[in-house]
Predict the 3D structure of the following.
Amino acid sequence: MTAIFLPSALIALLGFAPAALSNGNLLARVWQVADDVGPAVKLMMGALLLGGFLILVRWGQPVRRMRHVVSAAIGITAVAATVTVIPAGLSRGFGIALTGVRFEPTLTALYLLAGAIAGLTFAITLDRCAASTFRSA
């Protein structure tokens, strides 16, 4: 959710998308921008994030101390791969379909930032779950 809604909020605030210019409050505009993102984008990004995070949890013991950095890198990689690979016809409201340019600098930076924060959100949530498990045991 972070990888979709964070850039949608920034896009709505900065007015990059036509949906961001519609009438209504900011939350409605953010929701509209996020809703405009094509399902293929959401599925691809979600699958890449899930796969990366499952690999990190399963085989991440060697990078345990750097889990936050690795999680952010997984998020950035998932978003970058999605921006790079997804065709314009399937990306509706995202990347190339939003601006007509695959790597528009401002939007690409927003997407990569959102990917990094999505990865950090996962790592922090994992840490909190582990801490609450140890407290209750």
Observations:
- The radius of gyration is 16 Å.
- The mean pLDDT is 88.
- The CA atoms of residues 71 and 122 lie 7 Å apart.
